[in-house]
Amino acid sequence: MGVYEVKSLEQYFKVYKRSVREPRKFWSKIAEDFVWYKKWDQILEYRLEEAEVKWFVNAKLNITKNCIDRHLAKRGDKTAIIFEPNNPEEPAQHITYNDLYERVCKMANVLREQGIEKGDRVCIYLPMIPELAVAVLACARIGAIHSVVFAGFSSKALSTRIQDSECKMVITSDGGYRGNKTIDLKGIVDEALEDCPSIQSVLVAKRTNTEISMKEGRDQWLQPLLDNVSNVSVAEVMDAEDPLFILYTSGSTGRPKGMLHTTGGYMVYTAYTFKNVFQYEEKDVYWCTADIGWITGHSYILYGPLANGATTVMFEGVPSYPDYGRFWEVVDKHKVTQFYTAPTAIRALAKQSTDWVTKYDLSSLKVLGSVGEPINEEAWHWYNDHVGNKKCPIVDTWWQTETGGIMLSPIAFSTPTKPTYATLPLPGVQPVLMDDKRNEIEGNQVVGSLCIKFPWPAMARTIWGDHRRYKETYFSAFPGKYFTGDGALRDEVGYYRITGRVDDVVIVSGHNLGTAPIEDAINEHPAVAESAIVGFPHEIKGNALYGFIILKETGEARNRENLTREINQYISEHIGPIAKLEKLQFVSGLPKTRSGKIMRRILRKIASKDTSNLGDTSTLLNPEVVSEIIENAV
Ligand code: 6R9
């Protein structure tokens, strides 16, 4: 990957141009740096109209050879994974590349012994403990397709996902810790499996020592099986296009989509983007706070960092336990150099006193990252000022489960950052903005629907079992292009800013209003902690705006009428009077997905007084706020 490492803005532009002019040569050069059993016959074959893409055609490899084995000679004793437990009193574990090799080989042997073969689907429903990383990599080693389901999902959500991909096995644990809660994971699995005939066996890791029931002939404790297998295991020879994993996206409507990622392109892309965006160096300690149940964890806790021989932190807990200083305590303790988290976490922490931050020594930090949703200006500055001490570039990384890896982002130390902007496409990524008539919008200072017009190696290849849906969802709105579902603006120098999902645009009296900038304006009011704006039908204006607003504790005591007036004043000043709120409701929380995305679909229904069919709210992080919001709706 050394060839196209970016170390300055000038170099970025050079590398980027090359990647567009000769994408095949560009990616083949990068791919040279990996271990292949056999190299490709062709770099790329594609027909985007048909949603068909192949990278590194006929190449053979195993991704775990690249993430583990090849590091052993030079980095065998280097820490691959630092496991930081939920409870700060419990010692952290430093798992070296040698340890990881042994643990993955053993796990791979257990899976084989249990009858798992190449191509079989294995559902992994585990908390953020080392067994999760090991299970994922063990599947990859033997060519089984892992389907990790976030261990905060309900039994219903779990069984839907197991059924959809007809998994043969579930790997779970007796329980999981999350802050001061203990979650009965095995109980949830038992309930889910009442409805999953494809499952033949369940392996159970021990974490909480919770009393659980084991079903005879189906369930087994993992540890005794591991104790009885060899610590070497031959890696399966995989085709570059063999499936590596399925990951379900939270999709706001309809059935969850099982995005399928394949092996070769995904490996090359996640490794290259990790190295460049975060500028990882050999002695660095990198920490991404996501859960491995999300794409961010797949690509940037495990595969990308490990392919680079990095030290990656795996954190079991939550930012608020045992107190709001936990993130910073962990940064200090492990001397974290790159820290990658989500705006929702930043906003929650920014609500607390900065004493939680200043209490710890954060001087090890070099790069800060953001992912998952647009980062509002206020959160960006808080992150920059208080965490980065104005010395760490913030890489605002825009990408999706479907894209497999980061697409738009500053490259640390090269790309000048700009608050709320994901800035420029990474090398190899060709974004375009499209108008409603399906024309590409040229030039700068424009807004449109964000599409990608050329394939990149980590793109999802299909939706498991439903290629037609894949094609319809992503390749039909703008034929021949991948449609992201997001809107974006391109500023005067060509920087991109994601304005939110395209369906978050509300047309009020004929004006297109993105809800994100309005929320930004509102969030600048000192009494406001967070807000969500949706449209609802209005007799005269077509649509009007409904604001759901969470106040900071200090704001609670203030006169609500004055606040309403002031907030509208802020909107007027920042966006214009057209964007004023028709209705405003103060709420204690917003319905969010487990990955921290506001479920606007639900808010839209409430705002439209159509609460008859809210869909499945059980997978929300906080389903209880929904009834509170409905009760007090205006
Ligand atoms: C990686 C991940 C994808 C959607 C995406 C967009 C939003 C993610 C963002 C961002 C603005 C960023 N999103 N990163 N919006 N700025 N830096 O989050 O994948 O869970 O599939 O979500 O998240 O709307 O389309 P996923």
TrEMBL record:
Domain Acetyl-coenzyme A synthetase N-terminal: 12-67
PROSITE patterns associated with the record: AMP_BINDING (PS00455)
UniProt-listed GO biological process terms: acetyl-CoA biosynthetic process from acetate
Entry keywords, A to Z: Acetylation, ATP-binding, Ligase, Nucleotide-binding
Domain AMP-dependent synthetase/ligase intervals: 69-456
Enzyme Commission number: 6.2.1.1
Superkingdom as given in the UniProt entry: Bacteria
AMP-binding enzyme C-terminal domain mapped to chain residues: 518-597
CDD domains: ACS
Molecular functions per Gene Ontology: acetate-CoA ligase activity; AMP binding; ATP binding
Any matching Pfam family: AMP-binding_C
Sequence similarity: Belongs to the ATP-dependent AMP-binding enzyme family.
Protein name: Acetate--CoA ligase
Record organism: Sinomicrobium weinanense
